[in-house]
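ugh ok fine here u go
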Amino acid sequence: MATEQKIALVTGGSRGLGKDMALRLADKGFDVLLTYNSQKDDAEAVVREIEQKGQRAATLQLNVGDIASFDGFYEQVKTALSDAFQTDKFNFLINNAGIGMYVPFAQVSEEQFDELHNIHFKGVYFLTQKALPLLTDGGRIINISSGLTRITMPGSSAYASMKGAVEVFTRYLAKELGARKITANVVAPGAIETDFGGGRTRDNADINKMIASLTALGRVGLPHDIGGVVAFLCTDDAYWINGQRIEVSGGQGL
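structure:
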């Protein structure tokens, strides 16, 4: 358990991987401020689960692709920190929110490219930048990438390119924020059974079987496989891990 109050801001914490991250952070004794885009009821249900674990939690609406909304969002964060947690800073930023898109390179439209860019790279870049005044010295930044930056699968060129940019960005964060003792790392999940990308990994038996056959541990990943790694990176035991890409894929594509 944490010996002092520490708060994690988790984007996209209402479902899927983000939900598991939020719950596993609570298991470590951390309080959680989570965001949702449209699933308010789901987000509030996660808040209740965290409270049942004995931790404090709150939720705010955020579209991570709407960069112009970030100043207003952080004003809401300040209010939430004061009202729900009686503080003015948070300790951990987990950039998790995102969407899937599976389109062959030859068919990707500029509109689709821009949407992915705003959500997965530009949004992450400026949401992190604007968090700096509220992020404690000695804090942690964890950016969620993808196994697709290492394993090449047709149809993911735009998505994986944005995630590759986030991985480079994370190393620069580690370097430039080191003076404040803020670490920055990447967690790169392999294919996971969630509703991400329309649930194709979870619901398409052929895709599920194919991915399992390419994975050393013989199955597709589950949300529970990921959240604990993110939570660990927020603990004191992980303070010397910095500027790293940690793939959590069960040995996919080895």
